[in-house]
Amino acid sequence: MTPARPEQTSAGDRPAEAPARPDPAERPTHERWRSLLVPRLTLGHVAVALLCAGLGFAVVAQVRQTQEDVLSGMRQDDLVRLLDELTQRNADLSDEQEELRRDLAELRSSTTSREAAQEAAEIQARTRGVLAGTLPVHGPGIRVEIEDPGGGVRAQVFVTILEELRNAGVESVELSGQRLTASSWILDGPDGGLVVDGAVVESPYEWLAIGDPATLSVALDIPGGALASVRNAGGEVTVTEDEDVRITATKELTEPEHATPVPPEEPGG
Amino acid sequence: MLALLGLALGVVAGVMLDPTVPSFFQPYLPIAVIAALDALFGGLRARFDGVFNERVFVVSFVFNVLVAAFIVWLGDQLGVGTQLSTAVVVVLGIRIFSNVAAIRRHVFRA
């Protein structure tokens, strides 16, 4: 195997047309290379050439085969194993697909229910905003102007008007720029006039009320009712029905200090 | 020279004819090709060592191919065809490497 080893020679191997060659051990390699390329037509060489041709042919055939189809060159057990693996993998992927599909459906339904809840919450917030007086509102209603230059109309009369409006189903009320809600109060002012929710208002007073205009005006105008007592006290009243009353005054809500909501009862608890 | 010519001729014939390997030979052909390559490199090395003999080469070539195919066939019958063909490829690959190393020493003297 090592080049230092003395080379063994065989007689049949040496080319006949190089008789003047020195000792074969000292032959330079390039001469041996050249001797490889000299054609010699003996039976043995033809056989070698034939075998080499067969080898080249087989190599090309095998390469073609491999490139053509990887599976066709495989053994039966390998194919069976491959098929098993594929089936297993297929089942795994099917499971995963089903799981993902279930997740997707869950996510979709939760999105839908969350959207519905949000919509309901928005409607609730709108309703409560109107009721609590935190939102500007508009709609059909009446306008009541009260002139009281003499100062004879007292707070009690105004409270009566508010009660009548509420009885007639008013939804939103404003008195001279003050939004009236469930917690509003009206007092006589120290120098005549009124104090409404802490703000001083004076004549002429203007009520804005949103509700069914006919019902509201009839409710105020019944004999011996609210408007009659204003007139009795020396005030002048004008009632106008309006298709679009705008109540722009709003009220700031304060956080309840003592009352907290009762949690909903748990089922079975 | 003739051997080189034969090799080139075989490659050209393979390319031209585009042969289909019969399904019976399909597992054995790659092993047979490896065995033949081993014989070819062995012959080349013997040529450089000055001990080349056509008869030895032809016999070893044919015998290598047949034995390799037989081993794989036997492995298939025993149910260890894949492993045995791997073993044959490993052994032949080692032999090819050592033969090529010997040739390299002759050619490059290194």
Q: What's this entry about, in short?
A:
The complex is a heterodimer of chains A (269) and B (110). Chain A is of the alpha+beta class. Chain A has helices spanning 29-37, 43-68, 76-132, 155-167, 213-220, 226-232; strands at residues 137-147, 172-175, 178-180, 186-188, 194-196, 199-201, 205-210, 236-247.
Describe this structure in words.
- Chain A is of the alpha+beta class.
- Chain A is 45% helix and 17% strand.
- Chain A has three domains: 42-73; 74-132; 138-247, Alpha-Beta Plaits, CATH 3.30.70.
- A five-stranded antiparallel beta sheet of chain A has the order 3-2-7-1-8. A three-stranded antiparallel beta sheet of chain A has the order 4-5-6, covered by helices on one side.
- In chain A, strand 5 and strand 6 (199-201) form a beta hairpin.
- In chain A, helix 4 (155-167) runs antiparallel to helix 6 (226-232).
- The longest helix of chain A is centred in the middle third of the chain and has 57 residues, at 76-132.
- The radius of gyration of chain A is 54 Å and the shape is rod-shaped.
- Chain A starts with 28 loop residues before the first helix and ends in a 22-residue tail after the last strand.
- The model of chain A is unreliable at 1-26 (pLDDT under 50).
- Chain B has a domain at 40-110.
- Chain B has helices at 2-17, 29-49, 54-78, 81-108.
- In chain B, helix 2 (29-49) runs parallel beside helix 4.
- The model of chain B has no long low-confidence stretch (mean pLDDT 84).
- Chains A and B meet through helix 1 and helix 2 of A and helix 1, helix 2, helix 3 and helix 4 of B.
